[in-house]
Amino acid sequence: MQKIPTIPSSEITPEQIYLSRRKFMLGIGSLALTSAVLAACGGAAPASPGNEAATPAGTPEPTPDLRQELTSFDSITTYNNYYEFSTDKAGVAPLAANFRTRPWTVEVGGLVAKPTTFGIEDLLRQFTQEERIYRLRCVEAWSMVIPWQGFSLRKLLEAVEPTAAAKYVRFETLLDPEQMPGQKVGWYVWPYVEGLRLDEAMHDLTILATGLYGKSLLPQNGAPLRVVVPWKYGFKSIKSIVKIDLVAEQPTSLWMAAAPNEYGFYANVNPSVNHPRWSQASERRIGELSRRKTLPFNGYAEQVASLYAGMDLRRFY
Ligand SMILES: Nc1nc2c(c(=O)[nH]1)N[C@H]1C(S)=C(S)[C@@H](COP(=O)(O)O)O[C@H]1N2
Ligand SMILES: [Mo]
Fold first, then answer.
1. Is 205 in the pocket of ligand 1 (CB under 6 A)?
2. Where in the chain does DSSP place strands (E)?
3. Is 162 among the domain residues?
4. What is the distance in A from the centroid of ligand 1 to the CA of 86?
5. Residue 278 DSSP SS3
6. What's the rounded Cα separation, in Å, for the pair 158 and 133?
7. Cα three-residue angle 293-299-304, rounded to 5 degrees
8. Could you give the number of structural domains in the chain?
9. Residue 168: how many CB atoms within 10 A of its CB?
10. Eight-state DSSP code of residue 177
11. Which pLDDT score is estimated for 4?
12. Does 4 map to a domain?
């Protein structure tokens, strides 16, 4: 009898499992998934297997399909910036391995009509989880392409009904030095804080991520819930969030407090505004040999440039 060659399950990568499941979902016509990919790819129909009919002949070239550029699961989960655990990228995952992500609550309040504390299970149940494949560009000039799952931050904010006085959103990471040894180091003002202008927070590209590559987030990537703002430097995408407040004044982030001349509030990816200590014109894509040119707004200019119309982006960096 002929032996059918099979791949031992230990050799199947998370990427292969993710891609085969995704193909299946496209086959059955998952609407949420398809529209999420459209949003993440700039509005043009992606050329994906089983979906060729979506691009009729004669229409302009579709936006490059980021699915072709996915960074490996291994790199995404072992090369991390998460100063609460370590300033050494390879040291984060081992130190975060036993981080407790259940039970977990997120308190959403401030200038809202309906302040609410959500359990993480409520968020997963109440808001449809979509796939979003985004570039991530760190201010340190390296980048990745990550297939997140999550939901638009806008949906959560709408649920609590911001008042007319709300102009900004302020986010806070868990404060727990027993679990997060980096918080015992006095260089930074803990907890990690980040902020967005309300219209940035309400933009469809801004998500709360709960997973990547079809699996729940691992602690090193900000489990159980983190922000992802793909057109801004990675430090804006705050991890392991416990508090979200609608506020009237521009919040001061951890990085603004630490080095105000180096890290501004906006932090939009901008190849023509250099960091005081290095160029931002190009980047090292993790897993690739040659450098790539950095794109204005990290490749999302078409969707977000209008948010900054009339602003001097050299001054508001
Ligand atoms: N709470 C918290 N969030 C954080 C950070 C951090 O140190 N603490 N690092 C930021 C930086 S600099 C980057 S580049 C991204 C990295 O996300 P990743 O490790 O999931 O790729 O997380 C951001 N969010
Ligand atoms: Mo970063």
1. no
2. 105-110, 116-119, 130-137, 142-152, 168-173, 193-197, 207-212, 215-216, 226-228, 241-247, 282-285, 292-293
3. yes
4. 11
5. strand
6. 24
7. 140
8. 1
9. 21
10. T
11. 64
12. no
138 CA to middle of ligand 2, Å? 4
CATH number of domain containing 17: 3.90.420.10
Ligand 1 neighbour 231 (Cβ under 6 A): no
Question: Is the C-beta atom of 172 inside 6 A of ligand 1?
Answer: no
Q: Is the pLDDT of residue 111 over 60?
A: yes
Residue whose CA lies nearest to ligand 1 atom number 5: 82
Contact 134 CB / ligand 1 (< 6 Å)? no
pLDDT at 70 over 50: yes
Q: Is residue 17 part of a domain?
A: yes
Ligand 1 in reach of 148 Cβ (< 6 A): no
313 falls within a domain: no
pTM, full prediction: 0.88
Amino acid at 198: L
Distances (CA, A) of 90 to 197, 220, 224: 32, 10, 20
Q: Which residues span the domain enclosing 85?
A: 9-308
Which two three-digit tokens encode residue 305?
């440039």
Q: Is the CB of residue 238 below 6 angstroms from any atom belonging to ligand 1?
A: yes
Ligand 1 atom nearest the C-alpha of 191 is: 1
Express each pLDDT in 250-276 by its tens digit: 999 999 999 999 999 999 999 999 999
Tell me if 110 CB under 6 Å of ligand 1: no
Confidence band, pLDDT 50/70/90 cuts, at residue 245: very high
Q: Taking CA 16 as the corner, what is the angle to CA 15 and CA 19, rounded to the nearest 5 degrees?
A: 85
Mutation choice for ligand 1 from 72, 81, 284, CB with most ligand atoms inside 8 A: 81
> Which pLDDT value is given to residue 26?
64
Q: Which residues pair with 117 in a beta bridge?
A: 107
User: Which tokens in the block code for residue 83?
Assistant: 């100063």
CA 90 – ligand 1 centroid, Å: 13
Alpha-carbon Rg for the chain, nearest whole angstrom, is 20
